[in-house]
């Protein structure tokens, strides 16, 4: 808890930009990885919005690959065994189910079931390395056991591999006309817990949000999951900004109405938009108007009014049994201070701005390098030659061995110092590129957030929004490349 308190005190000045810190990392006895992160200072509505959006994305949108089906040649659905195979069909399916896969799942997602082939001739043991996998997918443990072939027969299996996220846990063991179904469980993130520390600063309420993530060791580390979730949110919101306007109307008393259409979306994406965007439209934007606008009462005293520029938001999700994707309709009513398209852009930009906090490089890396360099300097000082006469009474052989060991330690320490300084310089250079791309992203988000202040026509707003979306996507792509280089500089 001491580390948490230091984190809170460091960020207790609301004039500072919110930032995140990697507070704890551990390997759990059950094989999971645990990470704890803190972010602040945040206003209460920001904390709630960030907690909802990031947690939901972590649990439903981090991808992994699983074997979901198998067609075994020469097997009978009415038999539990295959002649010449030591294991039963049930045991073979279990072994296939537990194969651990890795790869660029983002690039392969949405392509439908992928096909892998296992084709070996006995007698021999069939293992995971014998599987001919689709391009872009590899097995983690090549020695993973599948079956023991005891006779000179061919063992041919056609495997179905699906890439999906935590929302798609399929429990469908048994057989069908296409072979054996495997009860695949897509669960790269096992658990996400959140907690909030609230405090006052100069009469205003602020919060620090803590995220605890338990992830599957072989699929994704907690920080990587948090980073991927943040990028997924940002890319999804670029689609939201470009949602098609299908209806607009102006009512009496200045009430404006707009309907927007967005498709195709996954069930998780629809649920995320329904939760996060509604919250941002109703709470975050209205809250900003309430904070920024002040009026005077009859006595001339300044007071905070309650404005509701977005009195109503409705979201309708449509799906079909024949289509795996869903459509979303977003209905927004505004009071004329801001029109529906402006509200949509501003809400999306605010969420992106908030989530982009997790794209910042962790400032504790600088502390890490400084600590390691100081430790090396302390070792060097500790192993300097002793004062005159320190070796009196000691054998010459012992003194010689001690001197050889001392010089060896000094030499290794000097090499460590040189390496640390080189890596620190490389880290600084990579970090500066990452930060520059992040600043470009923030500049684009600021433009998108302030569309409402520019007085554009609806057509001009749509053109500008589309342009800014492409600018944001370009910044994100540049950032991803720069950040991967930054991470590589730390893996020494």
Automatic annotation (TrEMBL):
A GO molecular-function descriptor:
DNA-directed RNA polymerase activity
Alphabetized, the UniProt keywords read: Chloroplast, Coiled coil, DNA-directed RNA polymerase, Plastid, Transcription
> Which taxonomic lineage is given here?
Eukaryota, Viridiplantae, Streptophyta, Embryophyta, Tracheophyta
**Swiss-Prot/TrEMBL GO biological process terms:** DNA-templated transcription
The name of this protein is RpoA-like protein
Gene Ontology, cellular component aspect = DNA-directed RNA polymerase complex
Instruction: Work out whether the entry's keyword set contains ATP-binding.
Output: no
Q: Where is the DNA-directed RNA polymerase insert domain?
A: 81-186
Coiled-coil region: 431-458
Q: A Pfam family for this UniProt protein? A: RNA_pol_A_bac
> Could you tell me which SUPFAM superfamilies the record lists for this protein?
Insert subdomain of RNA polymerase alpha subunit, RBP11-like subunits of RNA polymerase
Q: Which domain of life is it from?
A: Eukaryota
Q: Which InterPro entries match?
A: DNA-dir_RNA_pol_insert, RBP11-like, RNApol_insert_sf
Q: Does the keyword Repeat apply?
A: no
